[in-house]
Amino acid sequence: MRLTKAFVVGRHTQRLKRVFARHFKIDMRKPDFVVSYGGDGTILYAERTYPGFPKIAFRNSSRCKRCLLGATPKIHKATEKVYCEACLENAIGKLKRGKFKILEFQKVEATAFFTKNGRRNSKTLIGLNDVQIHNSNHFHAVRFDFCLDGVCLEKEIIGDGVVVASLYGATAYFHAISRKTFSKGFGIAFNNPLTPIRPIFPKDGFKAEAHIQRRNAELVADNNPEMIALRKGDKVVFRPSKEKARIIQLQ
Ligand SMILES: [Zn+2]
Q1: How many angstroms separate the alpha carbon of residue 224 from the centre of ligand 1?
Q2: Nearest Cα to Cα of residue 168 among 213, 221, 96
Q3: Is the domain of 111 the same as that of 77?
C-alpha cells in the first residue's frame, strides 16, 4: 500500500500539518491515512471521525522515551503503536518507503433499548477502547442484572457499572478498574461492585446483556460526548462490532 494522501487530526496541528505537507498531499476527505496528534483521547476521536481509515498516532512530546523508534525500549504494551514527535522524521521516512504493517482491531458495540416519550427506541454506540454503562450520579450506585450468551450470570449487581473493552482498550479503562489486561478477544469488567466480581473474557462472537433494575445510568463509548440515558427497565446488548480500526505499525 502506497501512502500519498494524509490528514492530521488533533489540537494545535498546524506545525505537524506543514511537516506532513512536505511529503504527502493533505486531503481531508479521502486520506490514505490519518495522523492522530495528541494523547489517547485524540486517537479515539480520530477513529470516530475517520472510522476504519489507517491511522498513525504521535504524542506531542519532543523527547522520545516511549516509542519503538526511539533509543529506549517500550514501557507499556499500549504505547507500542504510538510514536513521539521526536521520531517524526524517522517515522515519515518509513511511511514513505512502505516500512509498516497495518494492525486490525475489532471494535466493540453496545445497543441500548430504552423508552423515550413513551416509545420504544434503540441506539447503538461503537467504541474503539470500550463501551460502558456508568451510573449517572456518583453518589448512587446503579443496579443491574448481567447475562452472557443467554445465561444470567449475576442478579442485581450494585455498583458504578460495567465496561466491555476491545483488545485495543485492554490497557485503558478496563485495566484501570480491574487491574487486569488481556492479549486477545474482549474483556468485561465490573466497576466498583458492592460484592467483588471477577472480570470476564468472553468467547468470540459473544452477546452480553445488562438489564437496568434501579437508578439511572448512561451508556458511553470511549470519550464520545454522545451518551444514552438509561432508566429502570432499559436493556443494553454488548457485542463485537463489525467495524475494525486499522493502526499503522512502523517496521
Ligand atoms: Zn520516539
Answers
A1: 28
A2: 221
A3: no
Whether residue 207 sits in one domain with residue 135: yes
Q: Which residues surround ligand 1, an ion (CB under 5 A)?
A: 64, 67, 69-70, 84, 87
Q: Are residues 36 and 142 in the same domain?
A: no
Domain that holds residue 18: 5-98
What is the Cα 240 distance to its own chain's centre?
12
Q: Look at residue 250 and tell me if it is in a domain.
A: no
Cβ atoms of 103 and 81 within 8 Å: the answer is yes
Cα of 79 vs centre of ligand 1, distance in Å, is 10
Q: How many domains does the chain have?
A: 2
Distance 77 CA to ligand 1 centre (A): 14
Residue 6 C-alpha cell reads as 494524509
Phi-psi region of 185 (alpha: psi -120 to 50; beta: other; left: phi over 0): left
Kindly give the distance from the C-alpha atom of residue 61 to the centroid of ligand 1, in angstroms, as a whole number.
Answer: 9
Q: How far is the CA of 246 from the centre of ligand 1 (A)?
A: 20
| Ligand 1 center–CA 131 separation, angstroms | 30
Walk along the chain (251 residues) and give the pLDDT tens digit of each residue: 899 999 999 999 999 999 999 999 999 999 999 999 998 899 999 999 999 999 999 988 777 766 767 655 444 444 467 888 888 999 999 999 999 999 999 999 999 999 888 899 999 999 999 999 999 888 899 999 999 999 999 999 999 999 999 999 998 999 999 999 999 999 999 999 999 999 999 999 999 999 999 888 999 999 999 999 999 999 999 999 999 999 998 88
